[in-house]
Design goal:
mainly alpha, 3-stranded mixed beta sheet
Length: 177
Amino acid sequence: MIQSSAEVESLARIVDDNGGIYFVPAFSGLFAPHWRSDARGVIVGLTRYINKGHIARATLEATAYQTREVLDAMQKDSNVLLKALKVDGGMVFNELLMQFQADVLNVPVIRPKVTETTALGAAYAAGLACGFWQNLDDLRDNWQVDKNWEPRMDDATRAGLYRGWQKAVHRSLNWID
């Protein structure tokens, strides 16, 4: 369907929604917060109406749902409410995904100017160690926002879509005896 990951967003944009399908990428089981090795990847809700745009969109949405699951578990364990999500890595350039992530979490999603923060963190640690930066405030002052996405989805739509995701996850379980 696609030749490179850069094509996914444009393919997903040919449709207005996921068409009622969900993709659960449990290729080696489900990890946090489920920890189920018996799960396997599934695409559920297929009809003859579904096209490759719906599949691309459901694939992007799966990333946002998996992030929500982990953040919900963290919130439950810590009793700390998420106020915003700062993102990094290659997928942060997918505008559709970042907006959907903000919508699913119902918090702003913030992309920094430097999106490879693992490498940046190593550079910051080295800079602190050799005295290039004096303290953590110097690092905070160096961090800059590139783009924000604000949630736009209404609560009922958010809840309905997430219920669909949870049903799909349930369908992925018990494939391995």
